[in-house]
Specification:
Blueprint lengths: L7 H12 L5 H8 L3 H13 L19 E9 L4 H12 L4 E6 L6 E7 L2 H13 L4 E8 L15
Antiparallel strand pairs: 1-3, 1-4, 2-3
Helix pairs in contact: 1-2, 2-3
Length: 157
């Protein structure tokens, strides 16, 4: 995907939407110096260009009883495309996996996993790792505190 040309007004609009995707065009326009219609046209263009991928609600894991977060480093048995693609599909299909990165180094993947408790995590490890003959090894760290969590991207210079 080619990066579209973004001007300072686009960046300002994106900053408003990153802070609160429900901000109405009139409010954004007042902040950035555009009419609501101009803001709406720019937002539409940013969506069509793929700059805005989606707009979602950010839920509280604590409020939903999902109090445990795990960082898991996964090493695959062999690194071929079929094995990697199969693991990617498995990860995409599991709601406990919040984030997944294919990485360089000792591990092949890094997962951020959320579960209600250790029993939930044990069930996750069984279906994701122990039942998968292509997983050689995995190492888990338990998050003790959510210091910073988010998907906001740096928009400044």
């Amino acid at each position: 995907m080619q990066t579209p040309d973004l001007d300072q007004l686009d960046i300002a609009i994106l900053a408003c939407l990153q802070a609160d995707a429900r901000t109405i065009a009139e409010t954004i326009g007042a902040k950035v110096g555009l009419s609501a219609a101009a803001v709406q046209r720019r937002i539409k263009r940013l969506r069509e260009a793929g700059v805005i991928e989606r707009e979602v609600a950010v839920l509280s894991p604590q409020a939903l009883g999902l109090s445990m977060t795990f960082v898991v480093m996964v090493e695959m048995e062999r690194e071929n495309l079929a094995v990697l693609d199969a693991f990617r599909r498995q990860v995409l299909g599991d709601d406990c996996v919040q984030q997944c990165y294919y990485v360089t180094g000792n591990a092949d993947f890094v997962l951020i996993v959320t579960c209600p408790d250790m029993a939930g995590f044990e069930a996750f490890t069984r279906r994701m790792f122990f039942d998968n003959p292509n997983v050689r090894h995995f190492t888990t760290s338990v998050a003790m505190d959510r210091v910073k969590v988010g998907l906001n991207l740096p928009l400044g210079p």
